[in-house]
Amino acid sequence: MKNYYIIDFDSTFTQVEALDELARISLENNPNREQILKDIEGFTNLAMEGKISFRESLAGRVALLQANKEHLEKLIKHLKKKVSKSFDRNREFFKQNAETVLIVSGGFKEFITPVVSRYGILEKNIYANTFKFDEQGQIIGYDENNPLSYEGGKVKLLKELNLQGRIFGIGDGYSDFQLKESGLIEKFFAFTENIARQSVTEKADHVTPSFDEFLYVNQLPSAISYPKNRILCLIVGDVPEISAHILKRDGFSIRVKESFEEKYTKDVGMLLLGDGVEVADEQLARADKLKTIGYLGDVKGKLSRKICNEKGIVVFDDKKNKRTNAEFIPRRMADFINNGDTDQSRNFPNLILPKKLKGHRLLHIHKNVPGILAQINSIYAENQINILSQFLMTKGEIGYVVTDIDSNYDKSLIKQLKQIENTIKFRILYKQ
User: Can you give the residue ranges of the ACT domain (predicted)?
Assistant: First the structure.
């Protein structure tokens, strides 16, 4: 049974609403620009929340645009730079599923096709409205016979297509939920990487903060090993907003609290602490998912380095209290999660790794005892693994082996590596 993927365009495949962006371009020199833009955005939001019909919203927006083909060319260039990050990094998925990925949008083919076709999405699978132009190339309307110009147009289109298989819908708006409501699709995933509309998320089968999350929950091949939105980053104490912004922009799930609340101990993956915050040994010892701690100041005496070493937690701090701490520390934390880098860590050997990764990167944290590397490489040899590159560094009680290998290997390899005596933590990292 085939899987079909019905994907929205505006605020889903791209980070923005294309008609709103087109208006910003076409109205650049209009003295009433700000008010018109506000009116256009209002039409967009009312339709997305299901408060007015889509056709009413579309007609209202197009009438206000005052756009032409030259404006469309500028828009296309802009939209190519505004593809949602998680869609952009999963290009390979679209190439491999070209026959069953459909873009279904209330937007317009004139700007959608040039953007999504770069990802291997077939033109025959792009369903959207089309503009009408006058002889001077000015937009004067749209094809009113297109089902996607009507309220419930996506439902009508899908009935006409009569796809035979499991159908998944991904989008941010009410018209996307209508596909689920109609019974035509198996599951509706509310996409919130760019905008979260409560009227939509509360009705979704699953809220997906990224396309990586969608691929992960459906056990489909993904460009990264684990969705970053599933890694909880807890920020405690006096931490500047820029720190949270850096980590949130990178895709991590952020919680800002005045103290390290007990309910987060079991699930926290990253911990960013303001100067003066202390973490109890008992709490730190129970934080089994915790991978890295950032401390905006000198961490000495504020948490147990011994426990961090025993649990393989990488600590970054700045005992010199530099002004750039608020940006420097969270970036170091993100570099460890994203790439395995431990550069300028307080307790780990300092290692800067190649950013370009073709296969899978296996991170093995262990007690610094003789023979670990020999055991690791013996397992690789037994499994006929092609090693692309390998790095080993030690510091005090900690040993850190990073190995890049071809992605074609039996999953039993991972179990064997985890079972090596004196292993502290093991993680797989891959990205495209």
Answer: 361-431
The Cα 19–Cα 380 span in angstroms is 53
pLDDT of amino acid 432: 56
- Span 345-358, pLDDT tens digits: 999 999 999 987 78
Q: What is the pTM of this model?
A: 0.87
Please give the Cα distance from 306 to 123 (Å, whole number).
58
Which of the two residues, 48 and 14, has the higher pLDDT score?
14
For 7-27, how does the pLDDT look when each residue is reduced to its tens digit (9 = 90+)? 999 999 999 999 999 999 999
CA distance to 195, 250, 251, 253, 257, per residue, from 245 (Å) = 16, 8, 10, 11, 15
Residues contacting 388, CB < 8 A, separation 6+? 358, 359, 404, 405, 406
Superfamily of domain 228-339: NAD(P)-binding Rossmann-like Domain (3.40.50.720)
- The CA radius of gyration of the chain, in Å to the nearest whole number, is 25
Q: What is the CATH number of domain 360-429?
A: 3.30.70.260
Q: How far is CA 386 from the centre of its chain?
A: 30
Ranges of H-type helices in 348-411:
372-382
